[in-house]
Amino acid sequence: MTELLYRIVAQTSEHGPTAEHAEEAGGIGALGLDPLAILAQAVTFLLLFWIIKRFALEKIVNTLEERRKTIDKGVRLGIHMQVEQDKLADTIEQKLQGVRKKADIILAEANQEAGAIVKQAEATAQTSVDTMLSDARARIEDDVQKAKRELKKETIDLVAAATEIIIDEKLDAQKDSELIERALEGANRNG
C-alpha cells in the first residue's frame, strides 16, 4: 500500500506544475510543500498506526502493564521486607538486651558466690589456724609440764645425792622425797 502511495506521489511530481499547482504556488506551494505528498504521508501514517494498533499495540500495552505490575509488586515487597527487617532488628535488640540483663545477673550472682566462697575459705582457714595454734599450745604445755616433772625428778635426785654427801648417811627414798619436798616448798615461799 505504501508503495502505491509512493507511485502516486512520483507521478504527480513528474507532470510538473499544473494549473492547480500554479494557484497553490501562492499558498502552500510557496513554502515548498506538496499537498499530495502531505496527503500520501498522512495516509501512510494512518495505515501504519492501524497496523501497529491491530497487531502490536495490544501486546506492547500488555507487556508494559505486566512490567508495571511486576515493578509495583517488587516495590510493595521491598517495603514489606523493610518493615519485616525493622521488626526483626527490634526483636533482636530486645532479645540482646534480655540476654545482657541475664548475663549481668549471672555475673553478679557468680561474684556473690565467689565472695561467699572466699569468706568461707577464710573462715575455714582461720578455724584451721586456731585449731593448729590450740593444738600447738596444748603440746607445748604438755611438753613444759613433762619437762618440769623431769626437772623436778632430776632436782630431787641431785638434792638427794647432795644430801647424802653432806649427811654421810643414806636415807631411804621416802625420806629423801619428803625432805626435798619440804626444802622446795621453803624455797618457793622465799623466792
Description of the structure:
The chain has helices spanning 2-14, 19-24, 35-167, 173-190. The chain is mainly alpha-helical and 191 residues long. Among the domains are: 2-82, no CATH class; 143-190.
At a glance:
Among the domains are: 81 residues, no CATH class; 48 residues. The chain is built from 4 helices and no strands.
Helix/strand layout:
Blueprint: H1 2-14, H2 19-24, H3 35-167, H4 173-190
Helix pairs in contact: 1-3, 3-4
Short key terms for the protein model shown above:
mainly alpha, 89% helix
CA-atom Rg in angstroms: 67 Å
Q: How much of the polypeptide forms β-strand, as a percent range?
A: under 5%
| Average pLDDT, all residues | 82
Note the overall shape. rod-shaped
Distance between the termini: 160 Å
How much helix is in the residues? over 70%
Sketch the major β-sheet: none
